[in-house]
Amino acid sequence: MKPTSKFNIFSAVCITRYALMKIADKWTILVLAALSEQPYYFGELKRKIECISQKMLTQTLRKLETDGFIERKVIKGNVTKVSYSLTKLGISLVEPLQGLQQWAITNADELDQHRQVRVIK
């Protein structure tokens, strides 16, 4: 891909590089993919995304909120709950993320074959 105008993903100080680094994080992709289905409470997200620690989920949610990808709503009641949902910016990532997810599904068998060959050698 050619850089366009003032943006250059290969530059260490370019916002586009920062954006790609944020999105490319494995936990970020999984949290955004989950929230693309529906809003979730913290505990529901933790159960949905297997093997994520409470600390990592908390850090990921905070970063996504700070960067404007998700919205955090505190719901007061007998028990205070916190709900997370995608913002307009987060929703704009759904289609590209679904494309990556579909690519992974389409190529899963081939990827697995390459991994098995490496293990056997």
Structure report:
The protein is mainly α and 121 residues long. It is 60% helix and 12% strand. The protein starts with 14 loop residues before the first helix and ends with a helix.
Report the CATH topology name. Arc Repressor Mutant, subunit A
Strand order of the largest sheet: 1-3-2
Shape: globular
Distance between the termini: 35 Å
User: What would you give as the CATH superfamily?
Assistant: Winged helix-like DNA-binding domain superfamily/Winged helix DNA-binding domain
Biggest beta-sheet profile: 3 strands, antiparallel
In short:
The chain has 121 residues and is mainly α.
Give a topology summary.
Layout: H1 15-24, H2 26-37, E1 40-41, H3 42-48, H4 54-66, E2 70-75, E3 81-86, H5 88-91, H6 94-120
Antiparallel strand pairs: 1-3, 2-3
Index terms:
121 residues; Arc Repressor Mutant, subunit A; 60% helix; mainly alpha; 6 helices; globular
